[in-house]
């Protein structure tokens, strides 16, 4: 920790919008913003290293990096190779609805059972939708859906969907550090949990895409 304060923070990142967005070889996005602000608290500069999640975690295991970020969620693999922060944000995947509004009234959603629900090809909620009696339909552009759609709450709000109470899945977001870096871990966790409204930040980033 003492070597980082006033020095260099080596951070590995993997592209995963809106957590980490690659723009002209520089990372932006929610976690890039959080980590730049964290580096400022240490009066440290940041040296970013791009790579796949596996490459970065292997480098972290051998203390070649200080932090790895990129929309990581709690899982056994991370705990085998590194030390994960406490979850700093939980993504709730749920159902949203959007319909054309008339001049006299706002359209109400049809019954969910036997309705189509649009969702992206890469998802974790296909089975949960089926268990609700609905039909999951893979869509290349679910944000253009008029009707039912599945997604994170921040994504739904950013695209103008009304969020419902149907929680389909939850993902707990973490960052990874080398095992044994207790002082850096405590400082980073304190910074992450003192950050402002991450839901609002995610909505702004998604809406800007």
TrEMBL record:
State the similarity comment.
Answer: Belongs to the bacterial solute-binding protein 3 family.
UniProt xrefs under InterPro entries: Solute-binding_3/MltF_N
The name of this protein is Substrate-binding periplasmic protein
Q: Which residues form the Solute-binding protein family 3/N-terminal domain?
A: 11-193
PANTHER family given in the database record: MEMBRANE-BOUND LYTIC MUREIN TRANSGLYCOSYLASE F
Keywords in alphabetical order: Signal
């Amino acid at each position: 920790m003492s070597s980082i304060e006033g020095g260099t923070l080596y951070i590995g990142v993997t592209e995963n919008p809106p957590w980490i967005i690659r723009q002209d070889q520089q990372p932006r996005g929610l976690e890039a913003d959080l980590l730049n602000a964290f580096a400022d608290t240490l009066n440290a500069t940041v040296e970013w290293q791009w790579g796949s999640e596996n490459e970065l975690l292997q480098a972290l295991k051998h203390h070649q990096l200080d932090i790895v970020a990129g929309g990581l969620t709690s899982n056994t693999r991370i705990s085998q190779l590194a030390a994960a922060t406490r979850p700093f944000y939980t993504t709730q995947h749920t159902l949203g609805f959007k319909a054309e509004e008339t001049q006299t009234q706002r359209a109400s959603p049809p019954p969910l059972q036997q309705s189509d629900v649009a969702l992206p090809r890469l998802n974790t909620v296909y089975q949960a939708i089926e268990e609700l009696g609905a039909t999951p339909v893979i869509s290349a552009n679910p944000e253009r859906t008029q009707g039912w759609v599945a997604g994170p709450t921040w994504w739904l709000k950013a695209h103008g969907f009304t969020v419902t109470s149907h929680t389909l899945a939850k993902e707990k977001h973490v960052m990874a550090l080398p095992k044994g870096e207790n002082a850096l871990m405590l400082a980073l966790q304190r910074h992450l949990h003192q950050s402002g409204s991450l839901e609002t930040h995610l909505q702004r980033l998604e809406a800007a895409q």
